[in-house]
Structure formats: C-alpha cells, structure tokens
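Shipment paperwork, digital attachment
Item: protein structure file
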Amino acid sequence: MQIEHIRIMLVDDDSNVREVLAEILTRRGWKVSEFSGAEDAIKALRHEHFDVVLTDINMPGMSGMDFLHLAKEAAPDIPVVMVTGYPSIDLAVEAIKFGAVDFLPKPFKAEELEIIVRKAVGNSRLGSRPGDKTRAIGTLPDLARKRLEEKIKELSILNTISESLDDVDEKEDIFRKTMDIAQIISDSEKAFVLVAEQENGDLTVRGASGYDNPITGYRFSPKTGPFREVLSKKCYSYMMVDGGTLGPLVPGTEMTPVLLAPLIINREVVVILGLAGRSGAKEITNDALALLLNLTAKASLKLENIALSENIFQSIIGALNSLLNALDARDTYTKDHSQRVTQYAVSIARSMNCPQDVIDSISFAGPLHDIGKIGVRDDILLKGGTFTIEEREIMKGHVVRGEEILRPLNLLNSEKSVVLYHHERWDGEGYPRGLAGCEIPLVARIFSVADTFDAMTSTRPYRHALGLEVAREEIVRCRGTQFDPDVVDAFLESEILKG
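Attachment content:
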C-alpha cells in the first residue's frame, strides 16, 4: 500500500467540524468517508476497508470511547486516532489500552492533522494483535507499552504548553515561553521569533535564545527565500541552510537544519517561530513536529485573543474620546482641561517618587476624569452665575455618572478612583462619599490638587483666570483641609510652578 493513497473514516456529530476536517484531508488527495454517528460507522467498518479512523471522543449516543471498543472488535488492524479538546493521562491509558494509536488535541493545525494521519497509517502494520486489546495495563505488549509511555510524555508536554501560555498575557512573554518550550521539544540549539511589521511587512527579530551575540531588532525582507515560502503558503518549512544564508540567525559556515513555523492571526502570518539545530543534528521527528505545531497553534490563539482585546479596548477608547470631544464642543472653557490636569498630576506624582503603576493610572484615567459631565444639562454646565442647591447636586453627580460610563472598561481600582474621588477632601467634606485623609486613594488626592490648580488658572464663564502665584497661595492655604499636606508639598517642588 502506498502511504499517499489513504482512505479515512471521519466520525463526528458536528457537521461543521466534519466539513473542515474533510476539506483539509481531501486537499492532500486522500479519500474521506464522513459519518455523523458511531452506529453507522461501525457497520461500515465491518464491510469496507479503511486505512485510518479519526473519531471525536465527545459524541451524543455512543461515545467515542465506546466506539473505539467496537471498532477494534470490527476491524482490529485499522488504527484509530481520538480527537479531543480535553486530553488527559487517564484517557490516554484507557484509550491506548483498548487500541487507539494516537490523540489529536484541539486546537490543531492542518499540518499537525496530516502528520498524525501519516504516522498512524505508516505504523499500522505494527499494531497490537486482536487479543491484546483486553489485557490489563501491566501485561500490555512491549509495543503498546512503549506507545503508552510516549503518549503520557506527549500529554505531559501538551499540559506544560497550555499551563505555560495560560500564565502569560504580554506578547514578549508569549514569545519567550514559546521559544523555551520549542527548544525543549526539538532539542534545538537556537530559537528566534520574527514579527511582521504592519508598515512595510519587514520581519523583525523580537526574541532570540541560544545566541552568543544579541540579534534582537535585526530585519529581514519578507521576500527572503525561506520566509517568502512560509508567508505565502502559511505552512511550516523544514530545510538545511548554509551557514550565513539567514545572516545572524544561522551563524557559521556549516549546513544547519532550520524549522520555520508560522503563527497565524486573522488568517495572516503575523509571527514566525524559527528553530536552528546543531550542525549534523538528527531531523525533527514527526512526534516532535506535531508537538511544535500544537505549541504554535496555542501561541497563535493566545496572541489572537490579545489582539482582539486590544482592538475592542481601542474601539471603546475611541468612543470615549468622541464623548470627550462632544463635551469640549459644548464647553469651550474646559477644552484641553483634562489633558492639562493629567500632566500636572503626573508631575506631582513624579515629585512624590510614586511607583510607575500610580503614574500609569493617572495617565490613563486622567483625560477621562470629567466624562460624566456629558450628562449635565447645558443650562447648568455653561452657567455663568452661582449654582442653586439643586444645580450643585446635579453637577456633583458627574463623578458617579463618569464611573458608570467607564464601568464596561473594567478599570483598575486606582483608575476608577481618579474619576470617582477627585472631588473628595482631606477633611472629609468632599463628595461623593465624604472620604477623609488616607481613606481617599492616593491617585485621587494627587488629582484633586492638579484639578483645582488648573481650574484656578483657567478662564471660566464666571471669572477670569487667576495668576500662578495667587493659585499657589490658595493651594497652600488649603493644605491640611482640602488637600493632603504631602501632596501639596510635592506640588510646590514639582515642575508645574517652574514653567
């Protein structure tokens, strides 16, 4: 039998999954027979010839494991591969004990599916004898025991891949983890990550491991031979490369095995994982390649989720900026107020030697601190005279309304505090909750001074801007009553008054 002429039984109750898998397999020139239920598949196994069976584990009616038992009775020599999104060692022991040759954990790539099928068919003549399928695990034949040990090791690696990538949320950390695990799987000497730049498509080294000299930042043209193939075909490439062909990625003069694996996001190759083996090293095995493809699939999914979150976040920020622009258009006197206050608050925070997370919270939430005023009527927002009691209460409500508007962003507590508490007072006479002293979050205490200073030095409908010295004296006068004394001291030492 030629391994290229393969007949595959595909068993899955989900028509969409069957359609996708069948398309991938038939594209290789293989014949695929689809079955939506285990019962019909068992009947076909008794009367037709197949080279390999791919079956889902979770199916209504007869489960994939029950199907495995009956399939090995109906056609004991046909290899069965279990497709599952929840691989476990217990499942591996039971499945291999009863005759499964391999697992295909979800998500997977087309190349990984192809490798699994080829490996199963290629090894089918070495399968267990019919009588072996019911033996206890302690009496498994050597071949089955070896296969089980390999599968347990593989599942352990898959679990490590999942746990390692689940623990990180930054792109650079994902790159580093992916390189580390890839080197372990392939026993490669070097690993690198190339990222396609949005502006011109150039490939830039964003991470590297195993190199004597730093290569981060080195650029390649997407038209470079090996990279062009990966980018156009969106599949891995494994080749022997002359030393120096890929510049610093493969230093030296000897032939070196190189694997390039794409990480695909939104159907485009955005990242390429590269592995360079030792000179004279053995080729990467199908088992290692399948693990590497699983690794890149999970890393791609992680990066895609980050990109999706960033896009959603940017869309929300864009909508909020539109609200801020609408507010500025209504109240020309407060135009650019939020940006100025944010700059003042950052300057005070730096004068206090605040940690970076405090400065970051001020920088992000500062421009949004008055967004609740979008809900204040024009006759109140733009009023030139003194507020009535009712009007003052409506105006005070802008801090609560602002927090409500920003709630979908799931802001950090420190970021919420800038919006909600920047009108609280050190003596407890502020709003909305009447917090006092250190009950008021530090970011809000800082922002209170900055906000008041800008209000005094800006022209308002009811008065002209005050001079810097007058505003300074007023801030000092309210030290210990309206404002945190330490924040006032930092304000006086900051760059604000030096400009």
